[in-house]
Amino acid sequence: MPKHSVTSIYVTRPELPPLDEFIPYLEKMWDSRILTNCGPFHQQLEAALCQYLAVPYISLFANATIALLAAFKALHIEGEVITTPYSFVATSHALLWNGLTPVFTDVDPVTLNLDPDKIEAAITEKTSAILAVHCYGHPCDVEKIQKIADKYKLKVIYDAAHAFGVVGDHGSVLNEGDLSVLSFHATKVFNTFEGGAIISADPAMKNLIDDLKNFGFEDEVSVISTGINGKMSEMNAALGLLQLKYVDQAIVKRGQIDARYREKLSSIKGVRCLDRNGQQRSNYSYFPVLIDAHFPLSRDALYLKLKSFNIHPRRYFYPLISEFEMYSKLASADKAGLPIAHHASEMVLCLPIYPDLSLSDVDNIVDIIADVT
């Protein structure tokens, strides 16, 4: 037996409510025979999320990728969009699906978010928008980004997949920019198995987005836009209503795990935890650490060592989006122009964090890391 014996632990796991509490939702749905098409649970969840997240309008989607696709369509984005290479590939895939050209710029070395100081140099006459990501739920420098957008008359879309419930210096980060897109994937802080949403600021934009997610129908006989089928089902919405009752409890547990990691890792040379800059309220969606040259093993060697103990961290985000075949030939994908992003991609390791991860398992994970120092 290995010195540190643990059961299989993955970087994140879905938080599921008690099954017996879900049955009444299923019964209501079965009795109503309304399974989709923005039924009562869909409408209730939109209202509940607006209140919980302190946002004016929200449109639910089947997943966040479709929500991103609709967001670009709703804002009539064309040409080039400045974005980060340090994200999940869906961020840039949504641009290509809309016939848009991603223009990658480097990230900030502290937050790993899009570096506002690198944006202006990338703006051309074809630039129409900035697509930034609140990476790991850490807020972008929204003031600087908005100032640049205003100067050049650009739209700002935030991929807020990790930022459910995150509050920055000016309130909910979801209210920043023109639109923000959330993910409710099974592994997120708040999940509906699969799901997503767009946050908008006015009723006209919400109406447009709602038309786009329903094939472009304005009414039974009028199609006014080239829409898509992006609606969240009643099953997913019902789960979301139930999940919302437990999300604060889940975030508290995540916070305890986050604090334990920081305490135990603080004495290990070569392991740096990311600061939670600019957050008045965090959701502890991920726990990334950077493994630098002062640590005895490389990031990849540590990754394999943890896996040998049935602990499965993730190298979020490696490789960079700019390294994938469909992006690598872009001029902005040149490694020389993205040194911080590449360096972070080679050092980052997301350690397991989810509400039912025990603190003793956290201690075991850290002990395994410490044993190589």
TrEMBL record:
Does this UniProt record's set of keywords contain Transferase? Answer: yes
The answer to whether UniProt assigns keyword Transferase to this entry is yes
Q: Name one Pfam family in it.
A: DegT_DnrJ_EryC1
Please give the Gene3D superfamilies that the UniProt record associates with this protein: Type I PLP-dependent aspartate aminotransferase-like (Major domain)
Matching InterPro entries: DegT/StrS_aminotransferase (IPR000653), PyrdxlP-dep_Trfase (IPR015424), PyrdxlP-dep_Trfase_major (IPR015421)
**Molecular function GO terms recorded:** transaminase activity
Which key words are in the record? Aminotransferase, Pyridoxal phosphate, Transferase
Q: What protein family is recorded? A: Belongs to the DegT/DnrJ/EryC1 family.
Can you name this protein? DegT/DnrJ/EryC1/StrS family aminotransferase
Origin species, per record, is Undibacterium rivi
